[in-house]
Design a protein that fits this description.
Length: 914
């Protein structure tokens, strides 16, 4: 059994808990009220329902329908709408660091409107926001393009005044309560319906319940468990869950086979689907990424608020020029702030989105990429993710549980010769038989009659005639082959086939064969019984009364098979440090079987009813030790997600149904597929064009690479800037002139930051990608304090060299001092990138990507060239003597050596680097 230990024990609840709990309570209340209302319609007789709705079996008149449409509104549910482009553009600039940069630019402009730093900061802010806006805008449009409506109309029966009823194709949004809707195979159910007639109706409810197999629906089900089937529609009292009610069809589900007529009892927001959707619109909860960026931003801003006033005060007191001290303080603020952070983060995320699109993944919200990399728990449904989302015949068994080809043959004859619409299990039986065998069967038998499936009998029969063949002339007997629910078929059997012999089905043998069927049911298989009867007096027509005195042949067992690569994909996710939890609306037996087949340690399967009995604290403990949850509803799925988040986990949720929407919104990263219902795609942040965990694994790697390059930039820049400011503090206290002009500090920062634009294209070490990565503001602060001052040691060494060796120890020689420190500071900042980007030995054990190498060379060449360039005078530089460069090389080599040594000690002490 998989155990999860809290990542951050002190974190008692995810941020925004109050709002999220209110949303969850609202969702629970709305769905409960909608369920109770629908259960009332299910329990009432059909005639009473029509009377309560002021409707008839012939449908509404056009005038009545128009009035009800005006009264109840269009048949649409609340859904997420993409914000207007200008709102999306404004949100792209909503970032703590962008606010700081805008403030600094405003102060610099107020001090000197011609200051080039104003333009530099403005460009950085503009590029960052526009890059994020354009990528999210494009992804949003791509996601909208994935919405495919199965149909936009439905068949409704209406009347024109006193005329008779006619069937019209009406837009789904114009369906009203009281409308009589006709359903056929392939139809999407447009609203919540109470059935008034049905024939062989099978409905796919996976989007609502998660159950992989279609379920039978009927207008007149048995009144109680084990009750006598009735042809009279008296209502149903068996369940208060509208999804399980046999005489209700709910919006968002679809007809897989059969026909029916139903009266609309709820539309739009009043439907069971609408009750869920209405609670899922609005601001999303704060995710792992949002909280991480906020904490890191506040950490760096605090450093700036502490250091800048200190530099300003020391400069003002020691130099006496407070105006110059103010300007220098602003320059230090810019130098200390990783002003390219918003731009680098946006570039990182945008590049990640582009890379993921090549793997058939659409990223709707860029922040989700990092959340995907930080994810350490993935909650997923099983249907279509772990399984192939199709029904196959897994085994065909005799009465002792052994495989028997005769059982397959009889099952095939039943499925092949029936004339009605074949359901998924019939297709599975037919697909199991090869074409050559089909030809032989067609030659041996011919169709005589059939007794169709109905809900009360839960079986269907065909009667076949044996065709005359050479050596078998004169045989004219008919064979009835019955296939259906085990209990119903067994009740009609008096004998069974035992190793080719027909024997009486005694009570003991009846218990034996029942146990065989139950054993297969417990293995998660859907079991049907197959029985035969030989008609010695053949005739042209047969009836239900002839389904008697049957001989049990054996059983057919079906399942939705596991994907061939599911086990490998799960192992790959486990190797990446991601625990997979299966959260499904399907039953526990099927869920346990599938999970066991793909290598998941199932342990105790927790049912939704158990979750309702637990408070949040108890659910946290249960969620940590449970791998499989079954028969869970939307509210319970969302609670499981929040319980895992409360334990400090970054949770992803993969789902495609209406019942997944709440959990998709609450998860740190919601993942859906292009074939999902619209509300699931709207609630998700990432959409897979293939429902495949292998694709998801690629997304996880890309997310960790994106996060790694982001954190790499933050640690490199923040520690380097902190070291520079620390050096400025020392210089300001002991040197009688400015150690570097404000314009020099800005140019140095600009050249360095431009070089870092290649960071998103860097590669990450394989070891880094093996486990989830998360924001750690304390770790960043510790890194700044421990690693940043290393550069100050060599800055101070360069101060001493310039002061004593080259005589730059007076205001007359300050330009030489400033030029020398500028070059050393820029080159050390640029080269140290390669020391910090990996925990290994740079250039030997780990090499940066070629874009990073090129930008490093360009930055170094720029630093060497500027003091000798035509711009030198305007920037305050003077050419450096040839004797300076050996000293520079020595300082840089010593800096790299010491950094590598301290990096080893830091990793040994704290167990981490990036």
């Amino acid at each position: 059994m998989t155990m999860l230990t809290p990542r951050t024990p002190t974190k008692l609840a995810p941020p925004g808990k109050g709002r999220r709990e209110r949303k969850a309570a609202e969702l629970e209340s709305r769905t409960r009220l909608a369920g109770e209302r629908l259960a009332g319609f299910s329990a009432r007789p059909g005639a009473q329902v029509l009377q309560d709705l002021s409707a008839t079996r012939n449908g509404l008149t056009h005038a009545e329908a128009a009035l009800r449409l005006e009264r109840h509104g269009a048949n649409v549910v609340a859904h997420e709408r993409a914000p207007r482009w200008w709102v999306q553009l404004a949100k792209a600039f909503r970032n703590p660091f962008i606010a700081v940069l805008v403030f600094l630019a405003a102060v610099m402009w107020w001090q000197d409107p011609a200051d080039p730093g104003v333009v530099i900061l403005s460009v950085m802010v503009g590029i960052s926001g526009l890059l994020r806006f354009w990528q999210e805008f494009r992804s949003g449009r791509a996601a909208d393009a994935l919405k495919k409506l199965v149909t936009t109309t439905c068949a409704v029966q209406r009347r024109a005044g006193g005329a008779g009823p006619t069937t019209l194709e009406v837009p789904m949004d114009q369906v009203v309560p009281g409308d009589v809707v006709k359903l056929a195979a392939g139809d999407l159910i447009p609203a919540d319906l109470r059935l008034i007639t049905s024939k062989d109706l099978m409905v796919g409810q996976a989007a609502l319940s998660g159950e992989s197999l279609p379920v039978a629906k009927a207008d007149a089900p048995p009144r109680s468990a084990g009750g006598t089937p009735s042809s009279e529609d008296l209502g149903q009292f068996e369940t208060t869950d509208p999804v399980e009610a046999d005489n209700l069809c709910l919006m968002g589900t679809s007809v897989t086979s059969g026909t029916a007529t139903g009266v609309v009892v709820a539309t739009g927001a009043d439907t069971y689907f609408g009750s869920m959707a209405g609670s899922l619109v609005g601001e999303r909860p704060q995710t792992n990424f949002d909280n991480g960026v906020r904490k890191v931003s506040l950490l760096l801003i605090r450093f700036m608020l502490v250091m800048v006033p200190v530099v300003f005060a020391i400069n003002g007191l020691t130099k006496g020029d407070w105006d110059e001290a103010f300007l220098f303080g602003i320059a230090v603020a810019v130098g200390l702030t990783p002003e390219m952070l918003p731009m680098v983060v946006s570039a990182n995320l945008a590049r990640g989105a582009v890379a993921m699109s090549r793997h058939k993944v659409v990223v709707k919200r860029l922040n989700a990429i990092q959340n995907l990399g930080a994810m350490d728990v993935l909650c997923t449904d099983k249907t279509g993710t772990l399984t192939e989302d199709r029904i196959v015949l897994d085994r065909y068994l005799d009465v002792h549980g052994n495989e028997d080809d005769e059982v397959l043959e009889y099952g095939y004859l039943n499925s092949h010769f029936q004339t009605g619409l074949k359901n998924l299990m019939d297709q599975a039986v037919i697909n199991r038989v090869n074409e050559a065998e089909e030809v032989v069967v067609d030659a041996r038998f011919s169709m005589v009659d059939e007794i169709p499936f109905d809900f009360a009998r839960r079986r269907m029969s065909v009667v076949l005639g044996r065709n005359s063949i050479v050596g078998d002339l004169g045989r004219s007997e008919h064979v009835m082959i019955t296939k259906g629910a085990v209990e119903e078929v067994l009740d009609l059997c008096t004998h069974m086939t035992d190793r080719g012999r027909k024997v009486e089905l005694t009570d003991q043998l009846r218990r034996h064969v029942t146990r065989i069927a139950e054993d297969n049911n417990r293995q998660g298989l859907r079991v049907l019984a197959v029985a035969t009867r030989t008609m010695s007096a053949p005739r042209d027509t047969y009836s239900v009364a002839d389904e008697d005195g049957l001989t049990l042949v054996g059983f057919l067992a079906f399942l939705d098979p596991p994907k061939a690569d599911a086990a490998r994909a799960l192992q790959a996710l486990a190797d990446k440090g991601i625990a997979v939890k299966v959260v499904t609306g399907d039953n526990d037996l099927v869920a346990a079987r599938v999970c066991a087949d793909v290598g998941i340690d199932v342990g105790h399967v927790v049912l939704g009813a158990e979750i309702d009995a637990l408070d949040d604290t108890a659910l946290r403990a249960l969620a940590a030790r449970t791998t499989v949850f079954a028969k869970v509803n939307p509210v319970q799925k969302a609670r499981i997600v929040r319980a895992l988040q409360a334990d400090g986990h970054t949770v992803g949720f993969l789902g495609d149904g209406i019942n997944d929407a709440a959990a998709l919104r609450d998860a740190d990263v919601g993942i859906s597929v292009d074939t999902a219902v619209d509300i699931a795609k709207e609630s998700a942040e990432i959409i897979l064009l293939e429902k495949d965990l292998t694709v998801l694994e690629q997304g996880v790697i890309q997310g960790r690479t994106t996060f790694g390059n982001t954190i790499k930039y933050i640690k490199m820049t923040a520690s380097s800037n902190f070291g520079n400011v620390f050096s400025v503090l020392v210089a300001s206290a002991f040197i009688p002139f400015q150690p570097m002009l404000a314009i020099m500090l800005l140019v140095q920062n600009l050249v360095y930051d431009i070089a870092q634009l290649a960071t998103p294209w860097d590669r990450m070490d394989e070891e880094y990608l093996r486990r989830p990565r998360n924001w750690d503001s304390k770790g960043i602060g510790r890194f700044m304090v421990c690693i940043g001052p290393i550069s100050s040691i060599f800055d101070i060494a360069m101060f001493v060299i310039m002061w004593n060796v080259f005589g730059a120890n007076s205001e007359a020689e300050q330009a030489l001092f400033q030029s020398g420190w500028f070059m050393e500071g820029l080159l050390s900042q640029t080269l140290i990138v390669h020391m910090i980007r990996t925990r290994k030995i740079p250039f030997i054990q780990s090499r940066a990507s070629w874009p990073v190498m090129v930008m490093t060379v360009l930055a170094v060449l720029t630093g060497l060239y500027l003091p000798f360039s035509p711009l030198a005078g305007s920037l305050g530089f003077v050419p450096l003597p040839a004797g300076y460069f050996p000293w520079l090389i020595g300082v840089l080599l010593a800096y790299c050596t010491l950094t590598q040594l301290l990096k080893t000690l830091y990793i040994r002490r704290f167990g981490t680097w990036l």
